[in-house]
């Protein structure tokens, strides 16, 4: 079976569109590197498309009607958008879901210490990383520090060329004779991920003078005391903007494409179909904490989505417990999370016989992910896959079927199984990446375009 290729199938106009979509994606993802920044940018964009805060309706007892568009901001770290269809919501929704958290280095509650005349910032890594990849990479610092009086300080260091950056050092190769014999998972360990934070000693201070100087700077510039780190969320993420890759300009190199490439294409599909009159309600669900098991109030295992479906139906005069359950179980969902692309440098880990996603062949639909005999996998139904094939092929969209690597090489999870718990039809569908979870990940512009097309087609045509 020959795989269709997006580049070969595209008209000259479509090729131009592929590049434009990628440019817009790269600008968005260069700023929205953390879940908080993603939520902020997403809401700004949605408001431009006429989306209103659902809380205004809920709190003021205002009614909603078909074709209205609302969003719900979950603690600034997750967001849900609804476009109300003309059919009762209990007939089911078309849901696009993705996650907006990515692997990174989180700053600890007691982060600042001095050793050998250097001030360091202690971190606890977030998500599954090869730790050795995160040293010698310049890092930006983003997040919030909440003070006891309830006010907060936004921290964003690294967006501007003149901003300072941070880095976790590695031992010079000249002295690494012993270190180089360690296995890859031991060569850099979690507690070694301490970023350089300062090196000027404060005059006349005996104990930890460099730290004293840093604390004075923090007080001066930000009004932050050392103990304010106890109520802070600060993330060190790879520095720099998303960039075009390859002499043919066909690929994107960027931090956090897992899963912001899918989150962005879900968001855009939801917004760009919002002018149309739709029958089935569409929802776009952008959640936090997938990389650490989808736990916590802002993760997919939280009930906030279900609660907001109830609020939405209440504003529509359609609420009762049974209707909410019907709405969820009658829904269809694309769980949009990045796939593993075949990497020619490591093809020994790829699933053979065209079962691995290839760059340029479109979004990868995955019947199952999981590991060790599909363990932990959602395993979408053949009936649902057939429906999806039908609508995508009718619209002449290039897509491919993929597996997450060769059998027993490893595996991974997504949010698919959590929504499937409601009894809805869910399938995994995502942009293939090389270098997943590395500081900089690679995607194909053709596949980003395919993801956007697939998501729009699903919202419009799945019934
Ligand atoms: Mn992911
Ligand atoms: Mn991931």
Please explain how this structure is put together.
By secondary structure, this protein is of the alpha/beta class. The protein folds into two domains: 6-102 and 255-461, Zn peptidases (Aminopeptidase, 3-Layer(aba) Sandwich), CATH 3.40.630; 105-238, Aminopeptidase i, Domain 2. It is 29% helix and 23% strand. The strands form three sheets. A nine-stranded mixed β-sheet has the order 1-2-3-13-4-14-18-16-17, sandwiched between helices. A six-stranded antiparallel β-sheet has the order 8-7-10-5-6-9. A five-stranded mixed β-sheet has the order 11-12-20-19-15. α2 (12-31) packs across α12 (445-461), α3 packs parallel to α7 (257-272) and α8 packs across α9. The two termini are 29 Å apart. The mean pLDDT is 97. The site of one manganese (II) ion (MN) has 3 residues, from loops.
């Amino acid at each position: 079976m020959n795989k269709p290729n997006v580049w070969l199938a595209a008209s000259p106009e479509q090729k131009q569109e592929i590049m434009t979509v990628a440019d817009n994606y790269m600008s968005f993802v260069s700023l929205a590197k953390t879940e908080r920044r993603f939520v902020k940018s997403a809401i700004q964009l949605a408001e431009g498309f006429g989306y209103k805060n659902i809380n205004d309706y809920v709190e003021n007892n205002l009614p909603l009607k078909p074709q209205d568009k609302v969003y719900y901001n979950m603690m600034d770290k997750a967001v849900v958008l609804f476009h109300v269809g003309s059919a009762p919501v209990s007939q089911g929704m078309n849901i696009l879901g993705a996650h907006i958290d990515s692997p990174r280095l989180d700053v600890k509650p007691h982060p600042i210490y001095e050793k050998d005349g250097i001030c360091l910032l202690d971190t606890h890594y977030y998500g599954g990383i090869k730790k050795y990849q995160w040293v010698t990479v310049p890092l930006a610092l983003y997040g919030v520090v909440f003070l006891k009086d309830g006010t907060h300080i936004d921290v964003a260091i690294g967006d501007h060329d003149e901003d300072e950056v941070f880095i976790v050092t590695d031992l010079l190769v000249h002295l690494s004779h012993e270190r180089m014999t360690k296995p890859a998972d031991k060569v850099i360990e979690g507690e070694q991920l301490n970023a350089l934070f300062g090196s000027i000693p404060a005059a006349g201070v005996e104990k930890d003078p460099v730290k004293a100087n840093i604390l004075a700077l923090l007080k001066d510039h930000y009004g932050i005391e050392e103990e304010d780190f106890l109520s802070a969320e600060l993330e060190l993420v790879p520095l720099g903007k998303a960039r075009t890759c390859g002499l043919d300009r066909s690929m994107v190199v960027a931090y956090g494409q897992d899963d912001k490439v899918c989150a962005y294409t879900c968001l855009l599909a939801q917004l760009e179909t919002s002018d149309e009159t739709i029958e089935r309600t569409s929802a776009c669900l952008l959640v936090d904490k997938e990389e650490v098991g989808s736990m916590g109030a802002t993760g997919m295992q939280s009930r906030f989505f279900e609660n907001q479906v109830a609020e939405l139906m209440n504003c529509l005069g359609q609420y009762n417990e049974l209707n909410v359950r019907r709405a969820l179980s009658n829904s269809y969902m694309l769980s949009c999370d990045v796939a593993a692309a075949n990497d020619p440098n490591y093809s020994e880990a790829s699933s053979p016989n065209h079962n691995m996603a290839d760059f340029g062949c479109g979004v990868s639909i995955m019947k199952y992910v999981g590991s060790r005999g599909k363990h932990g996998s959602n395993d979408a139904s053949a009936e649902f896959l057939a429906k999806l094939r039908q609508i995508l092929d009718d619209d002449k969209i290039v897509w491919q079927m993929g597996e997450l690597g060769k059998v027993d090489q490893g595996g991974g999870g997504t949010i698919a199984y959590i929504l499937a718990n409601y009894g809805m039809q869910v399938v995994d569908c995502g942009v293939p990446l090389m270098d997943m979870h590395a500081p900089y990940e690679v995607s194909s512009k053709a596949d980003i375009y395919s993801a956007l097309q697939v998501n729009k087609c699903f919202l419009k045509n799945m019934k």
